[in-house]
Each structure stands twice: as C-alpha cells, then as structure tokens.
Design brief:
By secondary structure, the chain is α+β, with helices and mostly antiparallel strands. The chain is globular, with a radius of gyration of 18 Å. The longest helix has 16 residues. Helix content is about 30%, strand content about 25%. Strand 6 and strand 7 form a beta hairpin.
Amino acid sequence: MNSPQPATTRFALFLRGINVGGVKVPMAQLREVLTQMGGSSVRSWLASGNVALDWPGDAPGLQRAAEAVLGERFGYRARVLVRRVDELAAIIAACPWAPDDGFHRYVVLFDDADDADDAARALAGLASPGGSAGDPGRDGPVVPAGALLAGERVQLHGDLIYWRCPKGRTTDSAFGKQQNRGPAVRRPTVRNLQTLQRMVG
C-alpha cells in the first residue's frame, strides 16, 4: 500500500535581485531547482523571480531551503520572500484603490512590519495615521500629498506598503527612489498588483 502524501500548502516566492547586476537565474532552471528541492506544481511569472509552488512544510522552512539551494546552484547570496497564496489573495483584496488606466498599483513587501514602518517614515514629513489629500487611511501613516507626484498615494498596511504611482513616472517618484537606498538586505520586494493577481490565479 502506498503511503499517503503529506499535505501541502500553496506558497508564493519572490526572489530578490536576480537577472540584474550579473545575477542570472533562468526561469526554467529555477523551476527545476525548486522541484528537485521538494516543491511541486511549480510555476513562474516574468524574469524577476515570481514563483508559486506547493510545499509540505511551513513558510520559514521553505525560505531557508530555497535560499540554500538557489545560492548553491546559482552562486549568489539568495534572498527569498515567502507568502502563502491565500495571504496574497487577501493582500490583493485589501488594496485601497480601484484599478485606474493612468496608474500602476504596487505592493511593497518587507520581511517584517518594522522594516515597512521604517521605509515609510524615511520620507520627510510623514503624516500621522488617517490619510492625506482626501485619502481615507488604513492601518498607519501615509506620505503627505506634498511629497508625492500628482495622484500618487502611499499607504502603510502591517508588514507591507501599498503604492499607487502614475504610469511612466515610477523612477521619478521620491518614494520609488527611497526603496533603493540603504543596505540591500533591508530593501523591499516591489511587485505590480497585476502580477500578484496572476500568481493567485
């Protein structure tokens, strides 16, 4: 009689800093490595390191395993952020802004709430909780309208930040520039909401 298969959970993995700066991780090889590691039903989106897979353990165990095998296979200090897919669905549903053809909606993911709060407060003149420029505020501070591009919004929500930016202006945004400052180990993982929607399926 065959032994029952262990229960698995669907996770999303976000690889940081790949396919830039000389770190090349082909998606086909990435899927192969994660399957050999013990993941199943592995799928990837885009070349920036967005993966979903089924895993028989918990998120910290998956993070440790993925960082170890990726670092060994591709020869770099792998940094992987892990979220359950059901958590990702809740993140998408909680986005405070409806789709708008003139704006991108991003989710800025951190390892923990302290990092998210530090990143938000790094912009001078951060407003107190409650929102700004008519925006209804959610769980925490938002950047005041004077520090933003026209129509841009930033809202802190637990261990992540929602960011709405005019299309074509991402690199002009003070908030966008802020994300690339400081030690690389504490830099966030930024993903377009549409990418997350595809991963959730």
